Amino acid sequence: MKKIGMLTIGQSPRDDLIPGLMEILGDGYEIVEAGALDDHIMEDIEKIELNPEHYILVSRMRDGTEIKITKKYILPLMQKRLDEIESQGVRVTVVMCTGKFPQFKSKGLVVTPSEILKGVIEGSLKEGKLGVVYPAAEQMPYAENDFGRTGVEVYADTVSPYEPEDVEGLLERLKKENLDLIFLNCFGFPSMIKEKVITATGKPTIQSNTLIARVLKELISG
């Protein structure tokens, strides 16, 4: 049985994501999970300074509570957990986050979704209007820098993947923008939100975690 590492920036296990990913991967794989914040409690999280210059990320705790952290804070913890995953014989690990990450020290492959997702977006939309849905309003200013380019207009919006309160409002705003492609820019967005976006807008929509699961299957098959 092949082992696959799943490294989340929050806490493991990710019972909200793993079952759906396994449907795509199929049988014959053992998932080894670890979370950067596995040894943290909420009091630790509340002490993290949320400086936008340190790149704010959104994840969840083990009990499902949504949290905000920074990449600066999380990077050394992620490397520690990756080392632990690889000590169990794992040689392909996926980072369960769409944020940008540097090269990790690894004995195998570490798949960081952001580059793959951006490649799919740029290959699919040469010109037109791209909608990027973030999990937190604080991330919306990143949109133009991360996805804007000649011929492509970017519209940013937000809804929580973990505690969604205004999905209907999001759908109405997306419909008004007449978008050509919509990107759900968080690994935590569920299929339920994608289905609602497609039903409301009729536009092609990229769900991050399922796309990466299909890439991961290609990497480990054979």
Helix-strand blueprint:
Elements: E1 2-8, H1 18-25, E2 29-35, H2 42-46, E3 56-60, E4 66-70, H3 71-86, E5 92-95, E6 109-111, H4 113-124, E7 128-134, H5 143-147, E8 152-158, H6 167-177, E9 181-184, H7 191-201, E10 205-207, H8 208-220
Parallel strand pairs: 1-2, 1-5, 5-6, 7-8, 7-9, 9-10
Antiparallel strand pairs: 3-4
Structural class: alpha/beta
Low-pLDDT runs of 5+ residues are none
Query: Using DSSP, what is the number of strands?
Result: 10
Terminal CA distance: 12 Å
The portion of residues forming beta strands comes to 15-25%
Percent of residues in helices: 25-40%
| Overall residue-averaged pLDDT value | 95
* Sheet with most strands: strand arrangement: 2-1-5-6
Backbone shape: globular
Total domain modules: 2
H/E series = EHEHEEHEEHEHEHEHEH
Main sheet overview: 4 strands, parallel
Radius of gyration of CA atoms, rounded to a whole number:
17 Å
- Count of separate DSSP helical elements: 8
Walk me through this protein's architecture.
- The protein has 222 residues and is of the alpha/beta class.
- It folds into 2 domains: 2-112 and 210-220; 115-207, Rossmann fold (3-Layer(aba) Sandwich), CATH 3.40.50.
- Helices cover 36% and strands 23% of the residues.
- The strands form 3 sheets. It has a 4-stranded parallel sheet, sandwiched between helices. Strands 8-7-9-10 form a 4-stranded parallel sheet.
- Strand 9 (181-184), helix 7 and strand 10 form a beta-alpha-beta unit.
- Helix 6 packs across helix 7 (191-201).
- The longest helix is centred in the middle third of the chain and has 16 residues, at 71-86.
- The radius of gyration is 17 Å and the shape is globular.
- The two termini are 12 Å apart.
